Amino acid sequence: MAKLRVKNCTGCGACANICHQQAIRMVEDERGFLKPQINKNKCTNCGLCEKICPALHYESVNASLPKVCAFINKNEKTRFKSASGGVFPAFANYALKNNGIVFGAIYDSDMKVCHTKGESREEISKMQSSKYVQSDTKYTYQEAKNALDNGKFVLYTGTPCQIAGLNSYLGKDYEKLLTIEVICHGVPSRKVFEMYKKEFMQQHNDKILDINMKDKVPGWNAAMIRIATATSEYSFNSSEDSFMLSFLYNLSINAPCVNCKFNKLPRVADITMGDFWGVDDFDKSLNDGKGTSIVLINSPKGEKYFDKIVKHEQPLIKDVPIEVAVRQNANIVRSSEPHHKRKQFFKDVAKGSKTLEALIKKYLFASKYPKTVMVIYKILPPCIKNPLRKIVQKLLFRL
Ligand SMILES: Cc1cc2nc3c(=O)[nH]c(=O)nc-3n(C[C@H](O)[C@H](O)[C@H](O)COP(=O)(O)OP(=O)(O)OC[C@H]3O[C@@H](n4cnc5c(N)ncnc54)[C@H](O)[C@@H]3O)c2cc1C
């Protein structure tokens, strides 16, 4: 077996999907990111995989100055389940009503994150909310193409690099294909996520059934994570959770994410969706604490379908200047900065000799907060500790 060595490979899986010889498989590398592996016995050196690789060649044809608006899904129950203002379920609903197929990320039965197709409300609800882990797109590009070739409406959602992978794989535009990308901070390692789940289950002697990384029970701004196990439910502040800390401090994100060629204008997908951070400074009335999205409409096709959504779903929308959207959501136009010890962190992950909790202590707390600071923090009265924690969260955990 050989590895297809592409600098800045994001693991989108376009090469595995295009290979007519089924010579390419996506496998996790020692850091826990998906990379193509080639079976040399099957490979005919046709070069198609390199030709369509979006990490090697990709240029967006979308508008450099997209239309931008705030978006609130009018269905409260639906919006509550979503990470932000419920843009995704509004479009997914439209797809279902039009006998279409929706592609998005779910937890599979082993709680691994992967892309799948959905044709019912139940299947789509599993795609709701953010799973901050690299998703395995598997063979969904092939499935999307089959559906499009059969005249179906297809809604494909994912990270910008996954949408670029789909577009490259398809090689042409389809009027009935609508792509939506998340504003992306970067994708954490699948291996780090496995370490996290394993440690949690050992600690609690219980099986994880669901993880909501953007739990809205305490509110959209609260930055909470909720874990449902076979016997109980646990809720943590992201600032105290080893996995979320590794993500938010850019320790566990993929190498190409810190030099992402898709986090810029023009965007890759027809529509871009994210959290409307800074909404209060723009218009307080758009924030009811239950989630407000920012939407970028990047193409004429995106605009056509957006107008249909507005007509059918009647969300609350309001135009927003692009500068306002970017002000507190820099990932619209640039990559996240890597943590300065990211490489050492991954060396330790690859060795596998330390727990994630120990690694977080080593890389985030050991040098940053000396023991005395932690001791003082612990003994602070709640009236000081809580506002202090909120300020730190506001500065760091705006996802
Ligand atoms: C890895 C990651 C990083 C993000 N970074 C930012 C950020 O920096 N700033 C920001 O404003 N928003 C970010 N988001 C997006 C944000 O968290 C919401 O997903 C987005 O606003 C959509 O919310 P919603 O309420 O419209 O839809 P929801 O109903 O919450 O729908 C979630 C959508 O995200 C997709 N999705 C979920 N997990 C993954 C995954 N692992 N890989 C690919 N697609 C996935 C689903 O398929 C679905 O389309 C990020 C999301 C992810 C997955």
Can you tell me about this structure?
- α4 packs across α11 (300-313).
- A hairpin with a 3-residue loop joins β10 (224-229) and β11.
- With 399 residues, this protein is an alpha+beta fold.
- It folds into 3 domains: 2-52, 2-Layer Sandwich (Alpha-Beta Plaits), CATH 3.30.70; 67-188 and 254-332, no CATH class; 190-252 and 338-396, no CATH class.
- It is 37% helix and 19% strand.
- Strands 6-5-7-8-12-13-4-14 form an 8-stranded mixed β-sheet, with helices on both faces.
- The two termini are 39 Å apart.
- It binds flavin-adenine dinucleotide.
Walk me through the topology:
Blueprint: E1 2-3, H1 14-18, E2 24-28, E3 34-38, H2 48-52, E4 67-72, H3 76-81, H4 87-97, E5 101-107, E6 113-118, H5 121-127, H6 140-149, E7 154-158, H7 160-170, E8 177-182, H8 190-204, E9 208-215, E10 224-229, E11 233-237, H9 242-248, E12 271-275, H10 279-283, E13 293-297, H11 300-313, E14 316-319, H12 322-327, H13 342-351, H14 356-365, H15 371-379, H16 382-396
Parallel strand pairs: 5-7, 7-8, 8-12
Antiparallel strand pairs: 1-3, 2-3, 4-13, 4-14, 5-6, 9-10, 10-11, 12-13
The chain binds flavin-adenine dinucleotide (FAD).
Flavin-adenine dinucleotide binds near residues 113, 129 and 182.
